[in-house]
Design goal:
- It is built from five helices and nine strands, in the order E-E-H-E-H-E-H-E-H-E-E-E-H-E.
- By secondary structure, it is α/β, with parallel strands linked by helices.
- The chain has one domain: Glutaredoxin (3-Layer(aba) Sandwich), CATH 3.40.30.
- It has a five-stranded mixed sheet. Strands 1-2 form a two-stranded antiparallel ribbon. Strands 6-9 form a two-stranded antiparallel ribbon.
- It is globular, with a radius of gyration of 15 Å.
């Protein structure tokens, strides 16, 4: 896992929904920026999608920016192609850009391991939190509430220390080329 305090690797990626290129350094928040590695086909991502939408809608009015990135190999996983990303983003009502990392360089720079994977950066784009959304997994009967990521965002908003411990995400491995 990337060390806390690490500066966010910059990126310029196309948004599968709008077609616009998103440049991280031009779009960051003065409060907190959340980078999420997602994909369309992963059952873990499909499970957490409703909470991702709720969470973003709860924290965007507080100045938090959210970016979702899909880095999977679309040759082997065609359901993760950009046109399918757009369909999923619209069906799920994503209130954040859903970016396509065709080269997989962004996932490598972040040392992203799975989908979903979450990173919270402070106003200086220094890593404050990396890990899981919450304890919920498909079929484990834990509530889907985003408690770990919400705790990290509340801590940053309230200028408290980062949560400790931070638990790694669980999900499907990123599908590397």
């Amino acid at each position: 896992m990337v060390s806390l305090g690490t500066e966010a690797p910059d990126f310029k990626l196309p948004d599968a929904v709008s077609g616009e290129t998103v440049h991280l350094k031009e779009e960051t928040s003065k409060v907190a920026t959340v980078i999420m590695f997602l994909c369309n086909h992963c059952p873990y991502v499909r499970h957490v999608n409703p909470e991702l939408v709720r969470l973003a809608k709860d924290y965007q009015p507080k100045g938090v920016k959210f970016f979702a990135i899909s880095s999977n190999d679309v040759g082997k996983y065609p359901q993760d192609r950009p046109e399918k990303m757009k369909e999923v983003a619209e069906a799920e009502d994503y209130p954040f850009p859903y970016l396509y990392d065709e080269s997989q360089e962004v996932a490598e720079a972040y040392a992203a391991a799975c989908t979903p994977d979450f990173y919270v950066f402070d106003e200086n784009l220094e890593l404050f939190y990396r890990g899981r959304l919450d304890k919920s997994r498909p079929k484990n009967d834990e509530p889907l509430n985003g408690e770990d990521l919400r705790e990290a965002l509340d801590a940053i908003l309230e200028e408290r220390p980062a949560p400790d411990p931070q638990y790694p995400s669980a999900g499907c491995n990123i599908k590397w080329k």
